[in-house]
User: Fold these one by one.
Assistant:
Number 1:
Amino acid sequence: MAKQTSKRAAKSSRISRVLCAMDLTATSHLVLAEAAELAQAYDAHLDVVHVVEQWDKRYDFLVEDLTKSLAKEAKEKVAAELAHLRKHHPVSVDVIVKQGSAVDEVAKVMQERKPELLVIGAYGGEPDNKQPLGTVAERLLALSPCSVLVYRPCPSQDIAKILCATDGSPTARMALDWAIDLAVREGLTGLDLVNAYEVPTGYIEAGMTYETAREKMKKLHEEDVAKVLSKVKNAQVKIHTIVDNGPSADVICQNAEARRADLIVIGSRGRSVFARFLLGSVTTKVVRHARTPVLVVKDEAHKVGFIEALLAL
């Protein structure tokens, strides 16, 4: 929620509709605030959905009142975010209340509304960024055909520092494009790009010391990162690179903490047409263990898995 004036990217917005799923727990207002900021940054429409899972048909008359109450809260939160960001152009908001399974109903709303971004809380309950990823959040993250921002409370109320992870894959390149675009829109001057490497077994048999093998691996990965940067040399932000030794998820999370990132951006690494297998293991670990919001950027392959999964609902 950067207080600086957002710059508008020259190209058309990559997001025209944001969907925010609210569960009305203690962190919901924070999730909504994040969704409102992103909707504002991209001049996008904001849909807010809440699902009542336990419902007695005799109470159907309450749905209208609940919808009105949520609509009032959502519009007030959006107005507050615009004031905080010193913005004056409005963000359009729709509120949807459904009855049934949270995962099933949110999935159906995604199919109907076709958002480019889903914003969800990492878990229900009191704000605590050390809590594990909730079951509903994990299922929606796997099922969603669009990119997903998984929100966790963090010290800063502004997106002032972005850390993007790269491994040279096509989805990692998409993630970097998203990170650059968002940084520009938030009025930031730079972002961090992190790449991880590990020393492979067998270096002794190859006649190398651990230190020699590590230096060779680091050089290879620095060259890979240089290739990535060569493709975004006209970026409107400065990119600070970090090439670090260790398991990828650990390196990403540790650097996010050390650099005090307000947002991690990472590609999904889709590998299967089935929705539940679409997330790579590194992405899953980062979302589960990061103590900051994580934006998982998905490609077109996820839409295939989503259709398969939706047909099974």
Number 2:
Amino acid sequence: MRPKLVLLLMLTALIAIAPALALAQEADAGADITADAAQDISIATVNNKNYQLDLFRLFFIQRQQETKSQNTPAFQEQTFNEFLSLIVAAQEGEKRNLAENADVQTALELQRLMILSNAALQSIAKDNPPTEDELKQAYEKFKEQAQRTEYKARHILVDEQAKAEALIKQLDDSEGKNFDTLARENSSGPTAEKGGDLGWFDARNMVKPFADAVAGLEPGSYTEKPVQTQFGWHVILLEETRNAEPLSYEEAKPRLEAVVKRNKVANILNEMREEAQVELNEDIVKLKQTVPSTEPEE
């Protein structure tokens, strides 16, 4: 196939599928209409075999998700050429009767199971949307888990332990009143010009030695010994603490919907597993034996 013809086909196809891509990403109902239409549109005929636009559209979406690429003309052309290469190689496999190969049949069966499984789970999720009560219950748990302390602190960063110890001595002499000045004059960190001010932060976002030191301080106190991290030696002053405010219900709702939906699907899947009639080949599958309790009965 000539390069110009490849490019022409590629541009024509992508003009047709561009709305479908956007609709698919937004889960708009209109995407179903576009997808149905794509089933009846031919994108190319390769060695007298016709291939539908719908097939390429799915391939394009998968490649875009795998590569995290933008929908640019260059990526469109690359993907279309990959699609043609895929077709030509698959046709060669058919010529060689590789579909009859046991390993190929096993791989095809695995792909079939995975595709059907994903489609079934998506259908289950669609049939069991989260209720408002479920979302509110999930929000209460979210608020409990989101409870944490935030800290407002300053620090002085130096490259030697002795320097840090000398600074602590100066703080002791001034009862900690000159921390801002000492930080501006001595700290090598980027906060030096702000008197070492780190603002409000979650200790979980700090390296462990620093976080542990901050958590062990009372507001208004500073570390009695230098704290070593990979950045150097720190003298830390804790100014204030506060309880962090969790996201509002509306702000957290998209996350809650995803969590509740995932849990509901998992529960339904577990129920189906329990109800399924499974017969194991015990020559291959060995089940773990339940260890009986050794505690005396009352």
